[in-house]
Amino acid sequence: xxxxxxxxxxxxxxxxxxxxxxxxxxxxxxxxxxxxxxxxxxxxxxxxxxxxxxxxxxxxxxxxxxxxxxxxxxxxxxxxxxxxxxxxxxxxxxxxxxxxxxxxxxxxxxxxxxxxxxxxxxxxxxxxxxxxxxxxxxxxxxxxxxxxxxxxxxxxxxxxxxxxxxxxxxxxxxxxxxxxxxxxxxxxxxxxxxxxxxxxxxxxxxxxxxxxxxxxxxxxxxxxxxxxxxxxxxxxxxxxxxxxxxxxxxxxxxxxxxxxxxxxxxxxxxxxxxxxxxxxxxxxxxxxxxxxxxxxxxxxxxxxxxxxxxxxxxxxxxxxxxxxxxxxxxxxxxxxxxxxxxxxxxxxxxxxxxxxxxxxxxxxxxxxxxxxxxxxxxxxxxxxxxxxxxxxxxxxxxxxxxxxxxxxxxxxxxxxxxxxxxxxxxxxxxxxxxxxxxxxxxxxxxxxxxxxxxxxxxxxxxxxxxxxxxxxxxxxxxxxxxxxxxxxxxxxxxxxxxxxxxxxxxxxxxxxxxxxxxxxxxxxxxxxxxxxxxxxxxxxxxxxxxxxxxxxxxxxxxxxxxxxxxxxxxxxxxxxxxxxxxxxxxxxxxxxxxxxxxxxxxxxxxxxxxxxxxxxxxxxxxxxxxxxxxxxxxxxxxxxxxxxxxxxxxxxxxxxxxxxxxxxxxxxxxxxxxxxxxxxxxxxxxxxxxxxxxxxxxxxxxxxxxxxxxxxxxxxxxxxxxxxxxxxxxxxxxxxxxxxxxxxxxxxxxxxxxxxxxxxxxxxxxxxxxxxxxxxxxxxxxxxxxxxxxxxxxxxxxxxxxxxxxxxxxxxxxxxxxxxxxxx
Length: 824
What we know:
Elements: H1 5-14, E1 15-25, E2 31-42, E3 48-51, E4 56-62, E5 65-66, E6 72-73, E7 76-79, E8 85-95, E9 104-107, E10 114-118, E11 139-147, E12 152-155, E13 159-162, E14 171-175, E15 188-191, E16 194-200, E17 203-209, H2 214-238, E18 248-253, E19 260-261, E20 266-270, H3 281-296, E21 305-306, H4 312-331, H5 337-343, H6 346-353, H7 371-375, H8 381-397, H9 399-412, E22 417-418, H10 420-428, H11 435-442, E23 449-454, E24 470-474, E25 479-488, E26 494-504, E27 509-510, E28 516-519, E29 527-530, H12 533-542, H13 549-564, H14 570-580, H15 587-604, H16 607-625, H17 633-646, H18 650-657, H19 668-680, H20 686-695, H21 699-711, H22 715-725, H23 732-742, H24 748-751, H25 755-766, H26 770-778, H27 787-799, H28 804-822
Parallel strand pairs: 1-11, 17-18, 18-20, 21-22, 23-29
Antiparallel strand pairs: 1-2, 2-8, 3-7, 4-5, 4-8, 6-7, 9-10, 10-15, 11-14, 12-15, 13-14, 16-17, 19-20, 23-24, 24-27, 25-26, 25-28
């Protein structure tokens, strides 16, 4: 059962001053033993409960007395007759999991080594040990672990091997108590880790990976260390509160449901971020931002924690903003990480905010009545839109004032909990601007404004005329944004005439004359931008000639966002890509325009259009590979990836796999993508698959092989892939790999009949856990659905018995598909 806000508030009113001693014995094969000793103060005579799920052989003691009867029921350990000071002991056996929602067990196919990990997150702690599993009951945690000899355990506190009172054949790890943290931040990672540690700024730092990844860890260690140290030093300068959690270890772990998790002192990352063979530049950039994001949580989330899940944004929006800000500085070289955000992840925020399921960045507590509801708020609203709101707030206040308020907040709430009201109070202490009014408009209200360029005196947004252009807001939020104006130059080029910062409210803002006006030209606000007709005509002719990179990024982002909602036809978008992308010099633009264009074609084009549009994109990518921009390794990676996703030239793919001089050198990930594409084209890849599995013995190879098999254009292969996708024991990673190969937009006659049985069976798979339900939802076909398929989806949603996360994901999918259909 899901913890409710009402029960959490009642428990907080009863229980306080909590501390834990937790012992795990993980020497068993199918299950592990957990003992929790929790000390807490309470109202004398009151009752409360501990959270514990999927446990067997549960034994409970309270204040030295064995609790008789059914103390453990409905995922709770009930405790009554409390004293002023209490000690409860709970012993239980719990199962290992393969879906990341508990103590995850993974057997490395390379060497047979076993890795166990609880990576923190919502509802995970109660599947590992008995606890008061809610964020406001922060506590100290002292962990001990019994493992088999030769195994290393990592956790939030500093650990060491200790000798048991009586030898028992196991290895015993004991960890120092943590400072006060929430239950969702407890992590333990167990296995024969390859570890690299060093000292910086007086602290111990470390990176850890599976033993089979040691070569990849050593290859990337200089970059990992440089980014870690640069981010740490940046935060040390920005924040007056020092890092508070001792050593700082980071672990690449198998089976992670998220990109990473901010468990203090033992930050976990999904091990796909350490690929075999080589690390593409795009992944390297993204990884740097994730490292900075998780480190930001040491302050926003770990040092100061939200009281209830409605203030998820106080964690994620800030960490996402700081991840791009500080990650960009850590990368160095003038990397425009916010430009990359604006052309990629920000689109997810706009899409989510336009759906009926949108919600305020900062909802009220009563809008998040239980933990299941809260899980839905870990979405593009809290991340992409929230990042944009924090970015706009910093621009609106000024960065110096913004961080003065941040530091005031962190100091006042150190090791405690906070709400939106507390943060607003801290900001009001450093500025005389109307922060409550800004918060009400930006954080308490869902949806986003539209900003248009208006010319002439006519009522329409594209009215022609010789008067100066004006900026018009459709909405209610105050915006501070940059605007750039450009004029045509001889030879088809463009020249920047001006750039200025504008405060836009209810009244239009008159701008200086320009042929092309780019509102929000450096992405400082969150609003849909609609270019006027004059500007659009010039964009069609001269988009690649916009001389400033970030404004050019914003024009591309505007076009891509419009195509994603079918306001622009996919063929029109592909035409723009053909006309302008081969002349583009910015690697980030090439990467994300190609990637998003491929996805938009799959999602919005009719089945009969997909192949021809794919081939046109493949030809653009091949043209880029022979152009001037191909001097950049990042451009080669991006263009090659687009070819692998779209080309119909099997001989070309085989030449690239053979590493002939005519093609780019593919990364190991791209080699597998080539095999998936060849399989989907109907090529016999059995020998190629066997050879690649000899070449790549990593755990990723087994997942890629699933994709290759699922992509084969035969009914038997498709049915087998679907059957395994819906099996009870399929892991979270296997689900994604199978879906990647199965739902190909060019195999509609083959896979269309499988959509209905997928919808029916996926409901059962999703009930295994919240995070897995999200994975299941993301395994849905990403192509354009037929009316019959949408009717089947609508009928299942109407039944009302879906896990909340899957229901939200599928409702969003239905809305997006209906909207695309309405544009026809």
